[in-house]
Amino acid sequence: MSACVPTRAADPNRTERTHPPHSPPPTGPRRFRIAGADVSASIAVFLIALPLSLGIALATGAPLQAGLVAAAVGGLVAGRLGGSPLQVSGPAAGLTVVTADLIQRYGWRTTCAITVLAGLAQLGLGCLRVARGALAVSPAIVHGMLAGIGVTIAVAQLHIVLGGTPQSSVPDNLRALPAQLAQMRPASVSVSALTLALLLLWPRLPGRAGRLLRKIPAALIAVAGATAAAALAGLRLPKVDLPSWSNHALAGLPEGPVLGLIAAVLTTTLVCSVQSLLGAVAVDKLVAGRPGLPAGVGRSDLDRELLGQGAANIVSGSLGGLPIAGVAVRTTANVNAGAVSRNSTMLHGVLVVIATLLMVPLLELIPLASLAALVMSVGIQMVSLNHIRTVTRHREVWVYAVTTLGVVSLGVLQGVALGIAMAVAVALHRLTRTRITHEEREGVHHVHVRGQLTFLAVPRLSRALHLVPHGADTVVELDGSFMDHAAYETLQDWQKTHTAQGGTVEITGRHPGTRISEPSTVADCRCRPWTAWRNHQCEGPQSTPPPEKNEDGSDGPEPDPAGSGRGHELARGISAFQRNTAPLVRSELARLAREGQRPSQLFLTCADSRLVTSMITSSGPGDLFVVRNVGNLVPRPGEESGDDSVAAAIEYAVDVLRVRSITVCGHSGCGAMQALLNSEPGGTRTPLERWLRHGRPSVERMADGSRPWGSLAGRAPEDPVERLCLINVVQQLEHLRAHDSVARALEEGTLELHGMYFHVGEAESYLLTDIEEGGAFDRVREADLTA
């Protein structure tokens, strides 16, 4: 029985709507979800931001509610629009001095207007995509600025800690300090001392209970503890006073001299932008060291971050809040608490809003002395000893010191300007600091140039060259990375004149005739010595090796009979070594020739041509005893292999050379491991297959389901080949322990074994840290394989 289905006559004027035959059913609106890690991280950040926001507002002289407004806007606006998902923005200690000066000079309503204008300037800079340019500021200037601000904050808040009122500048505060010490209030000092003690001791609580308690922020514990102690003791102290929101002052039209207002806007824009952008870069470093983040958390978009900060400052200034920037303390807490998206930053802003509306009675119990002690500790921490050591190591301590003193004595903008001037002076000094010496040794005149060879050094260079007698043999040693046109012409003119008079000139350290300040037809290859003869990092017309003299004295290499152009590559590399590298290492090799080899370790690795042991270990002649074979294999002792070379090398290294460690190094993309995976046991026995059978235990180890497969910097291996490469390192270390000489040295405690993995594509080294987990490899941080 058939069913009759009515049909509709086709209408040529009607367009039929068709649907894909397998289109998915319509779905409802996506539900907004917040990860649990973001919720817990937002709570941790909120507990830190609440007391700090009040303290920073107190330090600036602004209404205390302004700090809460800035914290909420920083979380909601900058958190939503910024380009660094995990950076937390809000009122920052680095802006305290700038804001306090603006409030004192122009008043609060004009300061809010300046914040709005600074936000507009940030929007303009973000649209121009110049955010990366802010990173050109020397870190020594930034660290010096923050240190100067920290000193200013600490000295000012010390007066409140003692029960007094701070002055307008650091010199005035220092002059008033003796009188303040004579009139200090014991109640304020005791509350402040308790706050500082809790800040110092809480992160150091010992034991298992201490680990649990340390999850609560020390800043919250310090302020809450001091508040509770003051309430229980009945101390009469100035406390937080949050006026009604109906009386909250908003931004007004800026009033004051135009040039002064422009300078104030530029200063606020500079400090906010630089601090936020440097914070975003720091967040990328923190995130890179934290495995397991979702793919959505990528590197910071600095231009978008600048736009987000600008929008946040516009909103904060309009609502009567403090200027906003990225805050290092809250950002670090956010990352360490496990945040995985920008939802944590935004949720912390929501919590600040809730606290502002519902917790006013509790907030008004906080003594101002406790907040002052909290902010003073933040100011002290801004003077970082680690930063001082870093700038000292890079010989920029004068830039740091001048910037710090300038900020302390003159102000932020003036101090930064002095720091920039000092940085330029240091750079010019380094550029012009050229030492030129002349001496005669065994009848050969040596002219040694240390430093950059610019036009400023031409008079001294000419004077030293004219000390060389006519017809003498001369060696000119150029020890620098820059030579401008004037110095090049001087050197070339003298060389032509000297050789025309019968003398000889050998220029070492740089190929003679290579121009640095302008293009040249000769090679300008900047390859390192280990790639000089391959030239696979040099591009363009300048990648051709420099022409050499033929035996008949003519220019250029002799013709290649095969026509391939590659017959003399090795010869050119040897020639480059003799010309550039040999003079630098000759004395060291002569010492090694006299004393014999004394390597510190045996380095056993694959014969892969991409693995350059001296490069990845930063080692030199005499440091490593290297054994290379296909697959970095260590045959078990006693097996029939027909080749005892590996065992002989191990015995010689341990018993004769007395090496202190043995490292087995595998690498990514190993062809031997790929061949092992594809091979069938009992197949045709070629020499390669006979050798690779020593890797079969590694394959069996990988197939053993009872053993873990290990990890690489916290992640699983990308494919079976990488998994086998990692497991093979662990397996070969076990084979090493079976050798008598190794077992004996391990028992005596004179030998250590290490596993290493080198990822060729990433140029990243990993060390085996946990063999019990099947081979857990972590990135090499400060390991010195040549020690």
From TrEMBL:
The chain crosses the membrane at residues 39-59, 106-128, 140-162, 182-205, 217-238, 258-283, 350-378, 398-428. SMART domains: Pro_CA. Catalyzes the reversible hydration of carbon dioxide to form bicarbonate. PANTHER family: SULFATE TRANSPORTER (PTHR11814). InterPro entries: Carbonic_anhydrase, Carbonic_anhydrase_sf, SLC26A/SulP_dom, SLC26A/SulP_fam, STAS_dom_sf. Residues 1-30, 500-519, 535-568 are annotated as: Disordered. SUPFAM superfamilies: beta-carbonic anhydrase, cab (SSF53056), SpoIIaa-like (SSF52091). Belongs to the beta-class carbonic anhydrase family. It comes from Streptomyces dubilierae. It holds the Pfam family Pro_CA. This is SulP family inorganic anion transporter. The keyword Coiled coil does not apply. Its main location: membrane.
